[in-house]
Fold:
Amino acid sequence: MTILRKNKPQIHSIQISRRSKPIIEQTYHISNNRNPSISIITPTYNSAKTLASCLESIKNQDYPGEIEIIIADGGSTDSTLVIAQKYTDKIYPNPLKTGEAGKAAGVKHAKNEIIALIDSDNILPSGDWLSRMTEPFQDREIAGTEPLYYTYREEDGYITRYCAMLGMNDPLCLFLGNYDRMCMVTGKWTEMPVIQEDKGNYIKIELDDKKLPTMRTAEAGKAIGETGMQRDYCSCRL
Structure:
């Protein structure tokens, strides 16, 4: 899950680039709205098994601002579209079928200030998740946020719970010291050199484009930020 400020060019420009993308030069118009409007982009392809739980968790958010849900579908042949239509009428084709292409396709139709990239197998863990994840955007330097912790349920399989507590999908990352979620083994979310500032509810970080942690996104461009769920978001300054 990644949340980004939708870029609105101004006079000045900066280089940016946070789970996916290319470097872009842009500046951002920062809204003073404490509850900025959000466009949620969810790519799908035969996602019927998990989609209802995902969209229901979005529907149950207590976020007071405007929310739109955009589905970018890669040609599902199961009941994905039937499920999606219960939650939104903003359903668009994704001819390239992949999740990353679906995000790009969905962003083209987004009209709101904040872009939230939420995969179809993600479940927002609490009703205030969106509120907590967008809080850092009150800081004019923040470009994006991501969860700092992986979450899991007691009924999840042992591999899922193991990876969540490890903070990575591949244990090799532990030995390389380049991971992007809080690790219960090391007590760190990365061993890469980053400038960090504890803001209480989140960690604000400043990234060096030559020494980037493997953060879950490049969806934005080049380095966008980490935010956590419990303590809870790590936000990124570019």
Observations:
- The chain is about 20% helix and 20% strand.
- The chain has a mean pLDDT of 80.
